[in-house]
Amino acid sequence: MKPAAENVCNPDLLKERAHCRFIPEEITHFLDNGSENTKLRHKLEEYFLNNPLFDDDIPPDYLSHSERYSNELRKSCAMVQCFLNDPTVQNIAGQMEGVRMLMGNGLGSAITKDGNPLALHYVMFLPALISQASQEQMAYWIGRAWAGQIIGTYAQTELGHGSFLRGLETTATYDPDSEEFVLHSPTITSIKWWPGGLGKTANHAVVMAQLYTEGKCWGPHAFIVQLRDLDTHASLPGISVGEIGPRLGTNSQDNGFLRLHHVRIPRLHMLMQHAQVTKSGEYVQPASSKLTYGTMVFVRVAICFDAGRQLQRAVTIATRYSAVRRQSELVPGEGEVQVLDYQTQQHKLLPQLATVFAVTFSARRLWETYNSVTHGPKEAQLALLPELHVLSCGLKAACASDCSLGCDVCRLACGGHGYLASSNLPRIVTATTATQTYEGENTVMWLQVARYLLKVYSDGLESGEEAGPSVQFLREPRPDLTAPSHARLTNYGLVMGWRVAVVALLQEAQQELQRRVAAGQQPDRARDACSLTLVDAAQCYIRGHMCCQFVAGVDELQGLSAGTTLVLQQLCRLYLLYHASSSHLLRHGWLSGADVSQLEAEYRALLTELRQDAVALVDSFDIHDRILNSTLGAADGRVYDRLYEEALKSPLNQQDVPDAFNKYLRPLLKSSL
Ligand SMILES: CCCCCCCCCC/C=C\CCCC(=O)SCCNC(=O)CCNC(=O)[C@H](O)C(C)(C)COP(=O)(O)OP(=O)(O)OC[C@H]1O[C@@H](n2cnc3c(N)ncnc32)[C@H](O)[C@@H]1OP(=O)(O)O
Ligand SMILES: Cc1cc2nc3c(=O)[nH]c(=O)nc-3n(C[C@H](O)[C@H](O)[C@H](O)COP(=O)(O)OP(=O)(O)OC[C@H]3O[C@@H](n4cnc5c(N)ncnc54)[C@H](O)[C@@H]3O)c2cc1C
């Protein structure tokens, strides 16, 4: 997005835009997945961002905890009313598209700045119904949930257990006499803890609980539980529910707790698309017990896109600010330079710009895999489930950590002003860092990836189980480490280097594992002792996969101008070189010291080349000023005016002498006289 009136724009930004080497709209359309989507997004933005319904009377930072919740709930309900009932919105987007745009972290996050209390309803409750409910159950629940007649959340995590799903303590015991399940939280640690929207918003939840029938436990299953009266919203008998208190970020999402005291629900409130319990209490096994975890897989895919969108916002703010900010003289006597001119600043920002594309290409390919698995024939679905699980765990972990670290680098790149709430960087950083924890804590996700890699590498697959396409390289002959450097240092050569590292690390881990077991160590303890190496292997595998998706994605792009193609190729190369500095490519023999020096020189040259396009590149992300919501990042670069205007809005500045002075400071001043 460029400023409407160019004459009020900061001159440095104008200069930056003038020497752009590519066509920004081409990148905008690529990121939107087509020019039609760009038009649609613009119309939705125009409608919502100019609608006074969604204005904040007081900046949310100055509201109390309860006021913030109430303010965000007001706007989120108004948003839902719009896409359900307003023909203008429906004509623009259609209900589905409206929901995607409003609940994802694009337009919606500009409206509900502190977290959307209804997000979990759309992001997890509805997807859980779609992936877990039988046809009959869908017919009953989906329409009501879609129309907002019921509001749900996804209640899995407990005080005592989050990562270890099998360790959940909430029980759902079938009573064949009444044909009901009895849901119960037997201990303090079994209290559900964290679900978004659970505290005060949701009146229903998909509750994950250990299923007991005919005296046997069948593991975690999903149940729909009504929490609150649909009319009065009062919590129902047997339900203790509330909010868990302030968090690092997204404080309006009313993350909650839930304790169930022998709550009875009808048998058909167990979601029965995969596993079933008959009226008499017989358990009917699903084709795979992991199908119950399908909702998490969907959300892990969504998080990859979401983290990438957050990074787009952070790098837009930091890059524009770096073009406006002048600090110190590069050459004494020549005047202060834009901080973007410093090589160290380029090294902070340009890899983040490249990461946006690496994440986009990888997330899109993952989405394709998700769709082919979930919509393919049943047998193929089951065969590809481990590959989908591993890619979604690994990419979720990589996108979450790359993007949250990237957002924080962008915050640091803005110096002191990046620490101001009005830069919007603290909010972006705290929202993004949560993606490293929720929907599978990152280390736990890496260990899942490693487990599968080791299984494939050591021929531990069950009979009939095939290794997925992304790990076929583990079965292929090891690439030639003595190949000439011009072959090893190409884009595909560097992808190969990551694969070499994965194999070497798996070999190391396996040998260590065998040595420990042979020496009498219990196998699971031996595996834990190898887990640092295993996590390294998982991370190298995913980095190689992301590099490969980026290279292949750019190679396959069609119909772009030469300038745009060149910039994308340079960003891709920059991404590969940035990560090639990892010790693993050197340590496992793919690169020599001389290769590393050569790649570093190429990296520095690329920083200089891409520096000239940095502002135009972030412009091409086409993020509306109201979505950026930043004093530092607006398209016109009026940084200092905005900082001052925002400071004046502080409630402390509404009085010259605050009341607190008379209460506390005056007595102190007097007593020390
Ligand atoms: C509209 C769209 C907008 C998009 C916007 C997005 C914005 C998002 C905002 C949302 C905000 C917040 C949402 C957050 C919600 C939550 O956090 S919900 C809670 C999430 N909790 C977790 O993720 C728990 C993590 N733990 C687990 O998933 C499992 O416990 C674990 C994967 C660790 C596996 O556990 P194991 O110890 O291995 O035990 P088992 O369960 O028995 O597994 C045995 C084998 O099965 C394999 N496995 C596991 N999971 C899957 C799966 N899903 N699919 C396929 N296979 C699976 C596992 O690898 C084992 O395989 P093996 O025996 O080795 O062959
Ligand atoms: C903002 C936010 C929103 C959330 N929303 C929801 C929601 O809507 N619904 C819901 O059900 N939950 C939700 N959660 C909970 C979230 O899914 C869990 O916090 C997450 O899965 C991590 O589990 P945990 O908290 O038990 O961490 P723990 O597993 O206790 O992690 C603590 C440490 O132990 C380590 N660790 C744990 N297990 C292992 C292992 N096997 N091997 C090695 N190390 C291990 C971890 O790496 C970590 O360093 C939310 C959490 C947050 C922060």
From TrEMBL:
Domain Acyl-CoA oxidase C-terminal: 494-670
Active site, UniProt feature: 439
Domain Acyl-coenzyme A oxidase N-terminal residues, every copy: 24-151
One GO term describing the cellular component: peroxisome
Keyword Flavoprotein: yes
Superkingdom of origin organism: Eukaryota
Family: Belongs to the acyl-CoA oxidase family.
Annotated protein name in UniProt: Acyl-coenzyme A oxidase
Organism in which the protein naturally occurs: Hyalella azteca (Amphipod)
Highest classification ranks of the organism: Eukaryota, Metazoa, Ecdysozoa, Arthropoda, Crustacea
Encoding gene per record: LOC108681008
